[in-house]
Amino acid sequence: MQAAMNRRNFLKGAIASGAVLVAGGALAGCASGGSETAATDTVVGTTPVEFAEETDVLIIGTGIAGLSAAMDPVEAGYKVMLADKRDTYGGESFMACGVMNVAGSDAQKRAGVESDPEAMWEKYAPIIEKKGETDDMEYKKNIYLTQTEWANRVEADYGAQFQPVEDYKDTGAPTSMLLPLNGIGDMTSVLTPLVNGLQEKGATLELNRKATNFIVNADGAVTGVRFVDPTTDKITDVKAKKVVIATGGFSCNQVMVSEYMPQQAELCPLTVYSMGEGHELGRSIGGVYAHMDMDSNRMSDLAQVTVWGYFGPNVQVTPMGRRFIKEDQSHDSPSACAEQGLGFWWTIFDNQLIEGSQAWNVEMNMKAHADRLVGPCDTLEDLAAAMDVPVENLKATFTEYDGFVDAGEDTAFGKKLFLQKLGAPYYALKHFPFRYKTHGGLKIATDSQLVDNQGAPIANVYCCGSTTPDTGSDLSPNGASGIITGKAVVAALQSEGGEA
Q: What is the mean pLDDT of residues 312-318?
């Protein structure tokens, strides 16, 4: 009873602020001062609720998590609406590198790569525990194992296309990674078939719809969402049985970053759309945050270039021409650059990358960032001059690096993948460190329902992807998070008698 009263009082405050709108009457009970809240009372500047559309499942956000959350509900025959604030679908997933860490997928099995997801989880779980993220290990395990289901379903049922693992299987690259069809950066080959397949199965996609408010009934239960068209200011109220928040992170919201991650406030955001609107929307209905102070991933502003080290040889150096990290971990170089105050760094590569398994992406980035590219250079002296680094430093760096290659061990930084020599002609690309994916988010129950500060589920509201605390650093955990949420929504609808 006390929890119900606390929630009712919370919602009164949220309604007064305009964060939550009431449909079909006001909250029962008394407002401060003892006067009853009238059904005709309104918040200044708001328009009365008028539901223009209705759906069973309303998903806010069309990145990989939101799209994946639509799969089970639409396949179960429920009416599903996906809404996005932008004029295109896919969110920031379209801009991602596309590296997906998956175990035991059909795509890997076709290439003769066999791995047991359960066994791989046993190796991965201690890494999570070491970082102290043990608040819901059951959910994290479910995320990890569901990645395999996600990869298989988007390929078999929706026509998503992955690069044949055979393309890089015998090169020394990790076969635990799936890539989209053309390799790094080609997320169109995964997301577009998924969107088309969802629409063919009956889901609707509404663009230019920015969620601004939850709509609740007289009992305070969520019954829908208010949207505003950013281009016309048109208001659309959508009635929904279940709402899924899949709006991504908050790395582009400088106010939120300064409040929760001041240690990264001076870094620029890599993207511009992760504004944390879903975080704030969830909190307006009583949701609470978790892990908000956890560092976001740092990435280069040329994010795809940082992934090259998984698939071919390169050497990365400081503005003074000194090697400073191992090149086979994509987040190491931007993190070290920021922590050491270097300002920028260089990736040096040769034809082994240009002609390797990721040739499509290497060529694309060389053309797209010609203003950052130096080379081809026939000698290290020419390369140093083009990079404006001390030639003696660069030559000493390569002498040391080549020695590690000859010895078969990088005793300076521990590089394992593609510990290989480079040869002329040499090329180099300049990078700057940015912040990328945030890990803090709205606390959820194991079934993805939003919870309040007492841990009690908030009826009809679910979260997935980067709006939840730490779903990982690549795309497949976010896709898996969406599937888990979609299954939970279907189960809830069925238990409530909501037959499709």
A: 98
